[in-house]
Every structure is written in structure tokens, then in C-alpha cells.
Amino acid sequence: DGGITQSPKYLFRKEGQNVTLSCEQNLNHDAMYWYRQDPGQGLRLIYYSQIVNDFQKGDIAEGYSVSREKKESFPLTVTSAQKNPTAFYLCASRGAWRGEQYFGPGTRLTVT
Amino acid sequence: AQSVTQPDIHITVSEGASLELRCNYSYGATPYLFWYVQSPGQGLQLLLKYFSGDTLVQGIKGFEAEFKRSQSSFNLRKPSVHWSDAAEYFCAVGERGNEKLTFGTGTRLTIIP
Predict the structure, then answer these.
(1) How much of chain B exceeds pLDDT 90, in percent?
(2) Are A31 and B34 in contact (CB < 8 Å)?
């Protein structure tokens, strides 16, 4: 089945530690996205990538980093510089010519 | 810059009643418009989309939406809601050649028996 997978579903980390969230897609989509979701704030774009080895900052990129070494994979690292990392993180992808994005199931990150 | 407003944070509807969720956007040209649904703790699922053509679009799960350019609106409707429709609904807007979508803050739908 084609789709987007995110792992793990739940992630717990201590403050000051970096953590990497996984996102994989087998839809052969060129573009991939990372969003952060907080209650009452909708989705906010962290980073996006239109092609392998290229990515752009979104609206709230500070404290986050990404890589795009393969078309299928777009991991997100939440660094210790992110002041408030506890949130629900969603990965999405988009085909080459369609406007809609398809979402993975999300990862809930809790930092204490 | 694009913006999307969902004026209703929370709506409660009786099962079997009709539903309309409001979405207003701010954009200069003809946008791409989308409605997504999210169950608690899950990702977003695409309900329907508008790119061009017929302004009334049909989606999955019996939902439809109407694009009204004069009102800058793309309201979501369903003639009779089911308990399983309880979720959060997001409107989003994009544009040709722009890789990004702008999302509204969502409307939480509660269904009462």
C-alpha cells in the first residue's frame, strides 16, 4: 500500500537532547513537508523540500533541522535550541503536479 | 500573503442534522482550496479539493463544498451528520506554482445523539 509512515508514534525525551523524527513515503512524491500542530493553532510549517538535496525554511524553522538525501525520506531533527518542542508533528508529501498534500499519522513528542 | 479564516472554533450538531462549516480566504488570484479532517491523535485526511471549474465539489464521506469567489468562501456542507463525523476540520488554501499550503486554525465538530 502506498502512503506515508512516521515513526515512532510517541516519543519522550529529556530537555537538552536532540531527537530525530522519521518520515518515509512510497508515493514517489517530489515534495515533502514538516508541520507542527499545537492546540488551537492549526498547522504551522517548519521545513519543506521540493527535491532531493534541497529544502527551505517554513514559518517556524528555528530550533529544527532537516535533510533530504533520498526522495523517500525527510527526517526532522528537533534540537535543544527549540524552546518549546513538545507538540504533535506531522509529515506530508505532494505529487509533482497536484496541489493537495497527503499526511502521515503523526508523531507526538513530549520533552520534559 | 494568503490567509485562511475558520470563524467557528467549535460546533455542536445533533446526529442527523445538517452541517455547514465556514471557511474564508484572502488571496488575489484563483486559489486551490482544500478541506481536511483529523480524528484525535491522527494525521489529516483529504475530504475534497477545488482547483477550477464547477464551483460545487463533492468529496468523500458525503461531504461537499462550494467555492464562492464573490464572498471569498469555501464552506463545507453535509446534509445529515453521523456520530463518526466528530473530528476537527481544517480548510487550506494554495496557489499555482507555490509549494506551500496555508491552513486555517480548524473547527472542532461535536455530534450529540
Answers:
(1) 79
(2) no
